[in-house]
Amino acid sequence: MWHNFVKNHFVVETGLETFILGFYFVYVRNYFVDKDQFEPFVHHFADPYVAVALICVGLLALFVGLWDVHWFKAKALVLTAMQIVWTIYFVLFLWHDYNSPGPVGIGTILAGAVVMRILVEARWGDRL
């Protein structure tokens, strides 16, 4: 398993980050509460059932990375799923910071960094 971790460390690390984001939204309620016209839509991205979906994507990425799964191009599938998830949450964090007083939050900066890391890994990483 250690060999698979070293080989797929990016997928494992990003899967763990996705798992932690989902775990965070399970315990923190009403994170995206804004008083604008998109509040009902944005508010649902911090609901527990969406957080459970994040946890499932993170666990799937951990499974693919630690056991070096190659069925159905699993690594490409997991990278695509994590790219979609992190891009959506980057836009939501950016929208939340735009509607809140104060500077850009650290969550927005870190989500943007994760989005860029996934793009770089998908483009120039190991062959999928």
From TrEMBL:
Keywords: Membrane, Transmembrane, Transmembrane helix. The keyword Membrane applies. It comes from the Bacteria. The chain crosses the membrane at residues 10-28, 48-69, 76-96, 102-120. This is Uncharacterized protein.
